[in-house]
Amino acid sequence: MSDLLFNLYKDQLGVKNIHNESSLDKIIAIDREKVLQALDELQHKSTKDLANDFFNGDPKHVKNVLAEISHPFLYHIGMEINCPLEIALYGFKQDVAYFNEHLNDSLEVTRVLIFSASDAFQNRVNAYTGVMRIWLKMRHGEYMLELFDIHRSIDLDKLIAQHQQSIYDDIWHYAMYINYADQVKWLHEYCQIIVEKNPTYELPFKSVINNKNDGSVLTKIINRSKKIEIEFVTGTFVTGPIPSSSFGSTP
To answer: Distance between CA 140 and CA 204 in Å, rounded?
Structure first.
């Protein structure tokens, strides 16, 4: 199947510096393991545990942030996907049995949404970026993955080395859902105060992001020493429509 996928998406893969089927097989394998790791974390990492880890147990920051969170569990995990989104979706559907076996679960895809990343995000990575959200029904609830297809060259040797060392990609983030845009704004301003007082933390965006492509309102903060990134997000369209049966069709 990889020969068919390679020929169908040869141009998109060329942008990523993937020029043969062997290289395609390698990035597909890495993406599969990244997704498996994210699915495991979605089921076991609570917002409270994440906040405690992120803020090094600082009770003030943990309390103030969690007071704005509407759900005790993560909203989604976002990451860079190395394959073009069409291949990623096809591969995900093929790998459901693999994920279920390793997670001892009964995962199924319930809906998919594809859109363009915000201008602010594309400026951050200096490349056009497509986003795919995949909603999943699992044994303990419904979860979501957010996969970013960044149209830039991949250093395959470096990617393999990072994967072997279990190093997350530069945009791997944990999203917490917020009920109202005003709360996102408050969290952004609160995080600005944290960043000003502690250089360990960083705001990747100078202001709250209003992504017109999906209706989301969000901000992010990074703990540079721990390489953890948290997103605070809301939006009336953030869950996306249920696609038609032909949406995202793959070979």
So the answer is: 33
Other Cβ atoms closer than 10 A to 17: 12
Residue where the block lists tokens 């901000």: 219
How far does CA 212 lie from the centroid of its chain? 18
Q: Two tokens at 200? A: 């360990």
Please name the helix (run of DSSP H) or strand (run of DSSP E) that holds residue 53, with its range, or none: helix 47-54
**Which residue in 90, 108, 105, 117 sits closest to 32, CA to CA?**
90
Residue 212: C-alpha distances to residues 76, 146, 234 (Å) = 19, 17, 13
Distance CA 120, CA 138 (A): 32
DSSP class of 180: -
Model-level pTM? 0.89
Phi-psi region of 186 (alpha: psi -120 to 50; beta: other; left: phi over 0): alpha
What Rg value do the Cα atoms of the chain yield, rounded? 18
Q: At 212, is the secondary structure helix, strand, or coil?
A: coil
Q: Would you write out the chain's pLDDT as a tens digit for each of its 251 residues?
A: 678 899 999 999 999 999 999 999 999 999 999 999 999 999 889 999 999 999 999 999 999 999 999 888 899 999 999 999 999 999 999 999 999 999 998 998 988 989 899 999 999 999 999 999 999 888 878 889 999 999 999 999 999 999 998 888 999 999 999 999 999 999 999 999 999 999 999 999 999 999 888 888 999 999 999 999 999 999 866 554 333 333 233 33
Strand partners, 113: 133
Write the CA distances from 110 to 51, 140, 147, 148, integer angstroms: 29, 15, 16, 19
